[in-house]
Amino acid sequence: MPLQIVLAQLNATVGDVTGNADSIRQAAARAHAAGAGVLLTPELSLVGYPPEDLLLRPSFLRRSQELLEELVQETAQWPGLALVIGHPRQVDGRVVNAATVARDGKVVGVYGKLELPNYAVFDEQRYFVPDGAPLVFEAGGHKLGVAICEDIWFGRAAAMAKAEGAEGLLVLNASPFHLNKHDERLAVIRQHVSRHKIPAFFCNLVGGQDELVFDGDSFVTDASGEVVARAKAFAEDDLMVSVQPAGSVGGGEVAAGLSPEAQVYQALVLGTRDYVQKNGFAGGIVGLSGGIDSALTLAIAVDALGAENVTAVMMPSPYTSEMSLVDARACAKALAVELHEVSISPAYDALSQSLAPLFKGRAADTTEENLQSRIRGVLLMALSNKTGRLVLTTGNKSEMAVGYCTLYGDMAGGYAVIKDLTKGWVYRLSNMRNQHKTGVDGQLVIPQRIIDRPPSAELRPDQVDQDSLPAYDVLDDILVRFVEQGQSTAEILAAGHDRETLAKVYRLVRSSEYKRRQAAPGVRITPRAFGRDWRFPLTNRFLEKEIFQ
Amino acid sequence: MPLQIVLAQLNATVGDVTGNADSIRQAAARAHAAGAGVLLTPELSLVGYPPEDLLLRPSFLRRSQELLEELVQETAQWPGLALVIGHPRQVDGRVVNAATVARDGKVVGVYGKLELPNYAVFDEQRYFVPDGAPLVFEAGGHKLGVAICEDIWFGRAAAMAKAEGAEGLLVLNASPFHLNKHDERLAVIRQHVSRHKIPAFFCNLVGGQDELVFDGDSFVTDASGEVVARAKAFAEDDLMVSVQPAGSVGGGEVAAGLSPEAQVYQALVLGTRDYVQKNGFAGGIVGLSGGIDSALTLAIAVDALGAENVTAVMMPSPYTSEMSLVDARACAKALAVELHEVSISPAYDALSQSLAPLFKGRAADTTEENLQSRIRGVLLMALSNKTGRLVLTTGNKSEMAVGYCTLYGDMAGGYAVIKDLTKGWVYRLSNMRNQHKTGVDGQLVIPQRIIDRPPSAELRPDQVDQDSLPAYDVLDDILVRFVEQGQSTAEILAAGHDRETLAKVYRLVRSSEYKRRQAAPGVRITPRAFGRDWRFPLTNRFLEKEIFQ
User: CA-CA distances (angstroms) from residue B157 to A48, A153, B41, B112, B227?
Assistant: First the structure.
């Protein structure tokens, strides 16, 4: 009889230990009904990932332990099924990132994660101590080792499991998405597991958690490192494979990989949906400007939440062009979204008059531009407070990087859908979305003129973004090198950028750090977003003083 | 001849490597002129602390190294002076938190920090690898060991230095302040250094860096662990002591310790001053309400920046009492601060009319309260944009904990002066400040009626805080136990709090996490503030589902 192994690609919610235990229970029942001998779940499947400082709360650890013990007992209901659960485990007052294997009502063994990532978005050394004592158990005549996520990004854990006799490696993961992450994971499995000539069962978490999106995309490699089964990306899935008595593995579905644009788009949709729904909001609100950023944000919001759960608001000023009004209406109509139009002029006039005595003798400057943006923020937040829908902000990564955005203005809101998309990616995804599916009456979801016209904030007459910023293709390339790839100044100059432009970008990035610190979270889709993986001091005299003086 | 050792308690600015090198140079010149044989500086004195992700930038590491090498060469100008500099050091592509001892133009030795804190506000394992190979060097006939900050919170580093023959331990520190931290440091020195019967020279950083304040308060203990010299707190200082040929140490100033209130008040003043000045702002702006929080914030701002650099703005609504207007004016007058009065009614009316069509059929609720608060935020930010002065927010820790504050409203601003003060501490410091020094014409800086009246947000008729919140003494005690001391639910209940109140506080704390994530930084004065040391997920179903269902 071949051994059936199921990888349960679950969408666990952080802190929802009761709900997560239910999901694991249901997956176990499904796996048992399908004749499986092993059910593998993601890293920390019982508590969600990352639980952050919840791990410092005694009641959280105790409640997790209680539910773990319940699940262990319940395995008696699914005879012969080895259930692999990820959970935090207290040992002598310290905490281990653990996996418990339970079968027939008893604990078969417990593994503790060895390699604790403490870079980029990860802070595991804040919470966990390493363990790594190998766990190899028998199931259906096969010896299976256990490892957890970062363990397989290094060689030690797999080597130790192999040395203990493992004929296959079960890997619990909470591996967050960035573009083309699947290829990186596969390369790592091949480097550290497949070289031992054993299959690997890579079960990944799926779902959005604050700024992180876990893409699922679980897979199984055979002893030679070839992918023999692959789960869906960006959705819950059970992936079942068979291990033959002689050890060969196969028989599972092999989901097709996604294009780069589809990966990123689906990550944005899932991240937005889970943030809104897991936090119990009634829907989303998007301020439309007639520009491409807000149009794309609205499309993502509709795909994530449903048109009936999204409100669009157009808030024109005297600087808003007729074209913007027309295009915003067309966009909302194509997406079948309710659109409110509220002029900001009455509030602008009232605030300007109130401020006039304080501003006497001072020339107009960006203050007046920010004022317009902030009135829009106030209007959207009022609508949010009144309706329970969450304001989704519309700023992109290029703007957020250089501070081309207004704190408490267009930055006001609870979730920043496209904050990790450079402007170039905004165009790529807009075109992709238009091609993918048209809207009401066959209209383009993002009207072509929105894509074709030069970007403008429309906060003063005849303004375009390129009055203030380098051309977006230049800016984006610098940002990708500086922010995402961490290139040195010498490397960026060597790529052909001129010193003055680079100096300007550095200065703008550094001087807008304070804005980003107060920004809403949003989906991370690159190796480095402006979130947990960007921790620059606010008070920082380095960049401008040292490099370009 | 006794050996003179100087502890240079410097205010280094993060990233300002050129400026910090100058400060070290000047301190060395002073020490040499005074006949010293050793000059000790704080941890990472060349680059400031914490440099955070600057440590991931190659150009930052390279520039630090260049300046270190310059300083090493310059020690030839101060013959016989051993200069101890804190700096990041690249070793085989990894970075060590190092101290270099240089004398007569040459490197005497380099030490690398052994214990890397990765808890509370610290993330050193994100940046550094541990070293810990002991460094003991000779100066004036004495053998001196070197350790860095966290090293002395454990036993290993001091024991290894002692084993290498150290007759005294030089400790470079960047130890952030919280209330009564000096006592903790002294206990630790006694536990890990003094038990080896050697003196300790504890040189601490001073100054504000974002949310952290380093209090200086450097000190020297003799071989028995008695404090024989102590530098000023909250100011730069050189502390010089003599080591006699037989090893006894003494001869330095012994600054008096400060009361708890004075410690906290000076921390707030220094943190605010350094944030404003190091970031190049022209001054501060405070929105006065006639309540105690904004009155205390204004007093701190004036003490930090000078009355001429502070602007106060009173923004009454129809719900603002005459008493509030009178008291706010008295407060500004006593502090000799310019006061603007701007009614929010015109903007409120304009916005309400604009929103009326969207709100048709919906009852008034907190939306209208938030609207008032947000108009004030918009006005203050406009004044900030126009004048280059930074808006200082006025929310306290009790409010921030339970979300009794408006995002983009009273939370709008660049620095949150009293965000780590519970309401009880707001009263303590207000009374202390009034007793300390009166204002213009001998008037109380914080009018007595502001202290005596029940707190109110004045956002609807006859509102007081206790309509919405538990009594502040109850709330504060729960918050101190839950937030600052990390007590379990069982412990908090055992202290006499009732289950319903605790459940309410938990629910409020959890449901306002998203507000705090977008809050301005502010001075940390407790062991756990709402900043780097409070990292709870936004999406988190734990507290309300598990404890009190």
Answer: 38, 32, 19, 11, 21
B35 Ramachandran zone, left/alpha/beta (phi>0; psi -120 to 50)? left
- Residue A320, SS3 per DSSP: coil
A:B CB pairs within 8 Å: 265
Residue B58 sits at the chain A interface (C-beta within 8 Å): yes
pLDDT level of residue A547 (50, 70, 90 thresholds): low
Contacts with A383 (C-beta within 8 Å, 6 or more apart), sequence order: A285, A311, A313, A340, A389, A391, B355, B358
Q: What is the largest CA-CA distance in chain A?
A: 88
How big, in percent rounded to 5, are the helix, strand and coil portions of chain A?
Answer: 40, 20, 40
Q: What confidence tier does B535 reach under pLDDT thresholds 50, 70, 90?
A: very high
Catalytic residue status for A397: no
Integer Cα distance of B381 and B410 in angstroms: 11
> Quick check: B539 and A13 CB within 8 A?
yes
- B394 close to B287: Cβ distance less than 8 angstroms: yes
Chain B touched by A344 (CB under 8 Å)? yes
Helical segments of B311-365, H only:
322-334, 345-359
Counting residues of chain B whose pLDDT is more than 70, the rounded percentage is 99
Give the length of chain A.
Answer: 549
Across the interface, of B14, B377, B518, the residue whose CB is closest to A537 is: B14
**Tens of pLDDT, residues B224-282:** 999 999 999 999 999 999 999 999 999 999 999 999 999 999 999 999 999 999 999 99
Tens digit of pLDDT for each residue in A72-113?
Answer: 999 999 999 999 999 999 999 999 999 999 999 999 999 999
A380 touches chain B (CB under 8 A): no
Chain A residues lying within 8 Å of B358, measured CB to CB: 340, 342, 383, 386
CB contact under 8 A, B538 and A362: no
Classify residue B501 by burial, with Cβ atoms within 10 Å: 0-12, 13-18, 19+: middle
Question: Nearest CB to B539: which of A278, A346, A362?
Answer: A278
Question: Contact A510/A547 with Cβ under 8 angstroms?
Answer: no
- Per-residue confidence at B462, pLDDT binned at 50, 70, 90? confident
Over residues B6-29, the pLDDT tens digits come to 999 999 999 999 999 999 999 999
How high does pLDDT run on average in chain A? 96
**pLDDT class of A549 with cuts at 50, 70, 90:** very low
A485 in B contact zone (CB under 8 Å): no
- d(Cα B534, Cα B420) in Å, to the nearest integer? 12
Q: Does the distance separating the beta carbons of B517 and A521 come in below 8 Å?
A: yes
CA distance A516 to chain B (A): 9
Q: Which two tokens stand for residue A165?
A: 């006799």
**Can you tell me the mean pLDDT for A28-50?**
98
Which residue in A has a C-alpha nearest to residue B365's C-alpha?
A386
Interface touch B378/A15, C-beta < 8 Å: no
Of B52, B355, B489, Cβ closest to residue A537: B52
B-chain residues near A517 (CB < 8 A): 521
- What pLDDT is stored for residue B335 in this prediction? 98
Contacts of A520 in chain B (CB under 8 A): 517-518
Q: Alpha-carbon distance B212 to B235, whole Å? A: 15
Whether A381 shows a pLDDT value over 70: the answer reads: yes
What are the distances in angstroms from CA B122 to CA A37, A60, A415, B13? 44, 23, 27, 18
Task: Please report, to the nearest 10 degrees, the dihedral formed by the alpha carbons of residues B89, B90, B95, B100 taken in order.
Answer: -20
CB-based burial label for B302 (10 Å; 0-12, 13-18, 19+):
buried
Strands of A10-60, DSSP E:
38-40
Contacts of B349 in chain A (CB under 8 A): 350
3-state secondary structure of A172: strand
